[in-house]
Task: inverse folding
């Protein structure tokens, strides 16, 4: 059992961890660290956390398990302070949606002060954000990727795996850069594409957006997500994203070649191949 | 009241019209025309239609309202036969998802035999298909676009508008080519993009598809649609689709320029502009 769980950042993910950990009695005490008191107040009021503070040093005191749950760019900026004030025997992990830069920054800090840490990413995003959208069942059945490196001791990965599994998650592990390529493909590229679709259709003559039906709405739902959060995700993973975008452009060219050449048989075969792949994802 | 409603093609749309028209007592008799008896049998058994036949000439006999609800390419091939056997006072309309080619073909036929017709498109698609997926409430609140031309007499548009409104639809009218540009933007482009996303991610190393979460699934849901149907849609609207795809490529380039140049402020402003447009679509 965790004696004192410190959650830094109480948005959708941090808030959901607080609620889930409380509901499952995963920690004796839960402390939330946030930038603004008005964000922390509802968490205190709801009983999801026992203490709340805007002072990072205070929040980390005596914590044996530290979860960093701010947006990615903020997280990188906070790391030196986290490393300075974390107890020497604390386990540190995070929910950042890109891992390469972040884990490398943690490794640099660990050379000075060897804390037990492993990068993590619960793939339970939503177009919603903030503590108001947090749910104790957010991680139920969701994949959580942990990103140990050669330097990560096995017991650390095991402890953090156990943490997420007890919150309902299904844990997979892979190296940080492999994680970043995976999320570039299944998360960041679809997001970019959804945004480009909205931008395209909104810019056309004849107000076609007024005729958007379910297909368009589903395909672009994630474009309604928080702009600040996604700015940081795109910027923190731009190399993997550019590479994946290149592959996507080639796929678009291939689709266009098939319909423009009016090769009905080849076009149908390709659409059917895609249909089967997508249907298997249910 | 319609005396005899003939529905040619009993898939998702034709089947849903049958069920909705029956539920709302819109026609005294409903006749279904299909290619295969095993598709027609469940419609007869369910009471949604009174007669079913694989013989188009027989199905159109004495019908005063004819709805063509086959896939687009089949429809164009059927038109000469429809024109030959339709009663002289019948109203003809359709549910084809592209309109330019089809309406021009109808206009050519009408020069020989002046039937009352207007093109139509209920924007109530689904990744499901077939009579089994048909629902009497499919058109509730859905937009139906009618595409009268300068040659269309007003009473015809009014009669067909009335038909769809009684099935729950909200009718808009525009010229056939304007319709095709609208659906290229809000329907065919998202479909092509969803397919290209699946093809891209399925083709990458490291099996990223295994990590697809809700965002990817929503964005690509329509890629699980019937391949034959979409082959025909893409082919029948390839000019408007190519044009829209060009605009989409420019939007992708612009998004990439914003994240690759790491201009965080401009990127966030653009993501937020897009977020607001999308959020307004709810």
Result:
């Amino acid at each position: 059992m965790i004696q004192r769980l410190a959650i830094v950042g109480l948005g959708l993910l941090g808030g959901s961890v607080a609620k889930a950990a409380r509901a499952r009695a995963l920690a004796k005490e839960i402390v939330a660290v946030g930038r603004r008191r008005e964000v922390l107040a509802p968490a205190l009021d709801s009983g999801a956390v026992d203490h709340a503070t805007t002072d990072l040093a205070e929040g980390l005191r005596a914590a044996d398990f530290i979860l960093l749950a701010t947006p990615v760019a903020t997280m990188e900026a906070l790391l030196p302070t986290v490393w300075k004030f974390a107890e020497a025997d604390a386990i540190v992990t995070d929910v950042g949606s890109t891992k390469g830069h972040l884990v490398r920054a943690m490794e640099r800090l660990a050379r000075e002060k060897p804390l037990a840490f492993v990068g993590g990413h619960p793939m339970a995003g939503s177009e919603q954000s903030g503590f108001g959208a947090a749910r104790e069942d957010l991680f139920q059945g969701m994949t959580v990727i942990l990103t140990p490196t050669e330097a990560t001791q096995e017991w650390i990965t095991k402890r953090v795996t156990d943490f997420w599994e007890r919150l309902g998650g299904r844990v997979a592990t892979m190296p940080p850069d492999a994680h970043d390529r995976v999320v570039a493909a299944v998360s960041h590229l679809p997001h970019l594409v959804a945004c480009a679709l909205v931008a395209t259709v909104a810019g056309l003559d004849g107000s076609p957006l007024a005729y958007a039906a379910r297909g368009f709405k589903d395909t672009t739902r994630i474009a309604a997500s928080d702009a600040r959060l996604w700015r940081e995700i795109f910027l923190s993973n731009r190399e993997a994203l550019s590479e994946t975008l290149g592959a996507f452009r080639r796929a678009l060219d291939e689709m266009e070649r098939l319909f423009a050449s009016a090769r009905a048989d080849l076009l149908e075969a390709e659409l059917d191949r895609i249909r089967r792949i997508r249907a298997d994802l249910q």
In short: Chain A has two domains: 2-173, 179-279. Chain A has eleven helices and eight strands. Residues 145 and 172 of chain A are 5 Å apart (CA to CA).
